[in-house]
Design brief:
By secondary structure, the chain is α+β, with helices and mostly antiparallel strands. The protein has one domain (33-563): Glycosyltransferase. Helix content is 39%, strand content 11%. The protein is built from 20 helices and 17 strands. Strands 12-13-14-15 form a four-stranded antiparallel β-sheet. A three-stranded antiparallel β-sheet has the order 7-10-11. Strands 1-4 form a two-stranded antiparallel sheet. A hairpin with a 2-residue loop joins strand 5 and strand 6. The longest helix has 25 residues, at 319-343. It starts with 23 loop residues before the first strand and ends in a 20-residue tail after the last helix. Bound molecules: alpha-D-glucopyranose. Alpha-D-glucopyranose (GLC) binds next to helix 4.
Amino acid sequence: MSSSSFPVDWSHQNGNSRNPEDTLCSVAEVEEFDFSKALDKPRLLNIERQRSCDERSMSELSIGFSPRQLSTKPDNYYRLPDHLDNSFFLLPKSGLNTPRSLILDPHPLIVSEAWEALRRSLVYFRGQPVGTIAALDNSDEKLNYDQVFIRDFVPSALAFLMHGEPDIVKNFILKTLRLQSWEKKIDRFHLAEGVMPASFKVYHDPVRNHETLIADFGESAIGRVAPVDSGFWWIILLRAYTKSTGDSSLAERPECQKGMRLILSLCLSEGFDTFPTLLCADGCCMIDRRMGVYGYPIEIQALFFMALRCALQLLKPDAEGKEFMERIVKRLHALSYHMRSYFWLDLKQLNDVYRFKTEEYSHTAVNKFNVIPDSLPDWVFDFMPHHGGYFVGNVSPARMDFRWFCLGNCIAILSSLATPEQSVAIMDLIESRWEELIGDMPVKVCYPAIESHEWRIVTGCDPKNTRWSYHNGGSWPVLLWLLSAASIKTGRPQIARRALHIAETRLVKDNWPEYYDGTLGRYVGKQARKFQTWSIAGYLVARMMLDDPSHLGIVALEDDKQLKPLLKRSNSWTL
Ligand code: GLC
């Protein structure tokens, strides 16, 4: 991380004077900026209260950055939309070898091809665009790729928001909200009210010449698993829409408030849990097949944390909203403590686990989950760099899944579930293990692949998830947007730039595949769809964020200082 200081005078800041000229920044100044400092900067209290989507910290203080005085050079500056705070709009020196590449897109042809492909994927309902189809592949085997998936639409939505086209996102949010209120049933069993669909499609009745929506809540999905991630993505998207447009009226609508509360009721309900993490079935998220991610998968825990923080910003503090806000605050404290303590793995922690005593009883136990050191896989000793760390895939009784998962770790950075130090460590690890995680096509969905006997047991002999393919160590271009956002947030956009450079040339040539196979991601995936929409949108979002880092604010949340002091644990667990 760049440690260069930046000569910015914060003392003049005054959130009330939102002069558009204040939000201009020259590239020369951009070079001087240390992003890590921006995130740590003491923030001003009680400004910009009028916008309902302003950051609300756990302590319910309204905090945020305010515009700074910047010189106005004619054509090499960023102009921030008025509704964005300016905490995410600059890049550190290390990332700017060719400043103009930030302003002029070096690959206009690829970008325009991507936009054309993205627009072709639009799905209309009664004349209005409501989402994007998962893949525009013409092959016979369509399965459910002709549907609008909630998770797949997220990068599309971000692309449209960053491009100043928020209407489709609004339509999507409202349509999926209507679907949530459907009665959901699998055989004779009713699903909870708050469950959001995995996907939906528009059915055109040729006889009545009438369009209706058909949704899948898991009852048609392979494996019949409800998508736990959909509701979280929906809340995250609602916050992205609000942040990007400055229009808080959508989130404030009673039906949106209710939709959020229904999702929250599901994941904040009390049960037999002894941990603040969410217990899940295999295949309930992006990895939607049996892959040994049941239990407490990092992807869901990170999305859960982010959705809780977004909801805290969006909920109206009326009687019902307040009650949820209190529950959220409590859960966030417990969740961040648990994740930062028990899911975190670096060299020191690995060594501690390696030396763990087992069968400890009572409160003084150090090895709380009774992880048996013999269960440590060989690969993890080589994989762990001197500098760096990551959140492991899963932690539950006597089981730590040491695999590295891209989505969960990037969301941990974006949501500030990871402390600033942990965020830096995650990016350090990605740089140190570039071949393994990025290779010839960014980014590995997880590392490493499971093989042979383990593959048989863990996947149930899944022929789609053979080693280094699909969810089992395959490389997914969609993850580029998450990697890019995380690298910009940690002040290391050069990582995103390098990854994008690798992906860019191949993606168009290969017709935007869904995933790549092989240890390095050299081969177009065995059963990968072509013109996979989130590969296209993921690329566009990554490009747009690199070209204009102010977009980051739509998908990133600042570190919440309120969570920090609570991070204490026994000596052997120190970070
Ligand atoms: C695959 C992916 C899933 C995605 C779907 C549609 O099933 O595993 O994450 O949502 O395809 O693209």
